[in-house]
Design goal:
With 70 residues, the chain is mainly alpha-helical. It is 77% helix and 0% strand. The protein has four helices and no strands. The longest helix has 27 residues.
């Protein structure tokens, strides 16, 4: 919603605005877990973050699309 509020005055195309908002709402990539393994970070914590963001996106992305673009 924050991305939509910030970009709404500047973007003239609804399609461009919609694509940008959906991309911002996507879950974090699994690359963060891979980088944690590679560079000695906390891979378990990164995995939990990826899981939680993916789980949250199952609910938030359709809700966001319905509320902002219906």
């Amino acid at each position: 919603v924050l991305v939509w509020l910030i970009l709404r005055p500047f973007v003239t195309s609804e399609l461009t605005l919609g694509v940008t908002v959906v991309i911002a709402a996507m879950p974090c990539a699994t690359n963060c877990t891979l980088f944690c393994n590679e560079y000695g970070g906390d891979a378990e914590l990164a995995s939990i973050g990826v899981f939680l963001s993916t789980l949250a996106s199952v609910v938030t992305i359709p809700l966001l699309m319905f509320c902002l673009f219906a």
